């Protein structure tokens, strides 16, 4: 469903199959986050997870409807053990709001029930750190936290009692950033993320294809002359092309038409306004 360079899938495919770290970087608006989320859809099979884990007398709630989508099952054929849920492989996406505490086990003092860490909820799926480098914790501090899980596929979490427990880590870890990883991290840390893929600006041909596809999505008649006018006046030699521009421009056309109480159209006047 995305318009990407021909060689992109050949680069990202081995990274997905490896199940190890992947760093997507490049200019904003070229689809890094969208690609990361769609990677999760590559895993079409389902998995079972326990609703709750009991460790050293502590209840740790694992199931989170925000990240875990249940799959309809035939109760006759499926397991009758109600402690387990069948779900799609999870996709946990966090951005600049993430802090180090969310990577540890939480504790609700009222219910006396713990909550699983974000990476524990992402097991058997994908864990995406969007806007990497803009979190409250520094990038090196965050990556140091991931060194052991990336290398050994295990993680250590701290219970409210202070005891450490070992848990599996089998999520595909994806970092998305507008910043060049070579300038963001030192070599020793970069070695832990074996795949680093730069997402370039779309070519003009790809840009026009995205524009046509987006126009169908917004139900706006595509006008070749108007788009050529837009490219000549506002893009060629003026600004770089970004994959998000067609969607953003067409959304502006919709907003203009709503304000003027008419169907959305692609006109030179409206394109200038957008």
Question: What is the N-to-C succession of helices and strands?
Answer: HEHEEEEEEEHEHEEEHHEHHHH
How many E-type strands? 13
Strand order of the largest sheet: 6-9-12-1-13
The SS-based structural class is alpha/beta
Proportion in helices: 25-40%
Shape: elongated
> Please, how many helices?
10
Terminal Cα separation, in Å?
A: 25 Å
- What is the residue-mean pLDDT, rounded to a whole number? 86
Summarize the main sheet: 5 strands, parallel
Strand content: 15-25%
Low-confidence runs: none
Radius of gyration over alpha carbons? Answer: 23 Å
Textual characterization of the structure:
The protein is elongated, with a radius of gyration of 23 Å. It has helices at 8-18, 32-40, 118-121, 139-152, 181-184, 187-190, 204-218, 224-235, 245-259, 268-273, and strands at residues 22-26, 46-50, 52-55, 58-61, 84-88, 91-94, 106-108, 113-115, 126-129, 154-158, 164-168, 172-177, 195-199. The strands form four sheets. The protein has a five-stranded parallel β-sheet with strand order 6-9-12-1-13. A four-stranded mixed β-sheet has the order 3-4-8-7, with no helix packed on it. Strands 2-5 form a two-stranded antiparallel ribbon. The protein has ten helices and 13 strands. It is 34% helix and 21% strand. The chain is an alpha/beta fold and 274 residues long.
């Amino acid at each position: 469903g995305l318009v990407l360079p021909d060689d992109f899938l050949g680069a990202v495919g081995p990274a997905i199959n490896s199940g190890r770290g992947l760093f997507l970087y490049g200019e904003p608006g070229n689809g890094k986050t969208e690609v990361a989320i769609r990677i999760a859809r590559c895993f079409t099979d389902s998995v079972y997870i326990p609703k709750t884990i009991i460790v050293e007398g502590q209840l740790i709630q694992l199931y989170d409807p925000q990240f875990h989508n249940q799959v309809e099952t035939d109760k006759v054929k499926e397991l009758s053990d109600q402690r387990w849920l069948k779900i799609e492989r999870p996709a946990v996406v966090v951005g600049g709001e993430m802090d180090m505490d969310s990577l540890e086990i939480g504790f609700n003092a009222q219910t006396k029930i713990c909550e699983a860490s974000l990476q524990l909820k992402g097991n058997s799926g994908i864990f995406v750190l969007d806007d990497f480098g803009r979190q409250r914790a520094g990038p090196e501090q965050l990556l140091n936290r991931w060194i052991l899980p990336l290398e050994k596929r295990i993680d250590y979490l701290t219970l409210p009692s202070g005891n450490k427990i070992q848990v599996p880590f089998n999520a595909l870890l994806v970092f998305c950033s507008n910043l060049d990883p070579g300038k963001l991290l030192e070599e020793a840390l970069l070695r832990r993320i074996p795949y680093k893929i730069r997402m370039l600006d779309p070519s003009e041909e790809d840009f026009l294809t995205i524009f046509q596809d987006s126009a169908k999505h917004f139900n706006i008649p595509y006008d070749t002359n108007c788009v050529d006018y837009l490219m000549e006046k506002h893009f060629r030699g003026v600004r770089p092309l970004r994959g998000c521009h067609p969607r953003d421009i067409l959304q502006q056309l919709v907003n203009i038409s709503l304000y003027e109480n008419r169907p959305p159209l692609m006109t030179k006047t409206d394109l200038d306004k957008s």
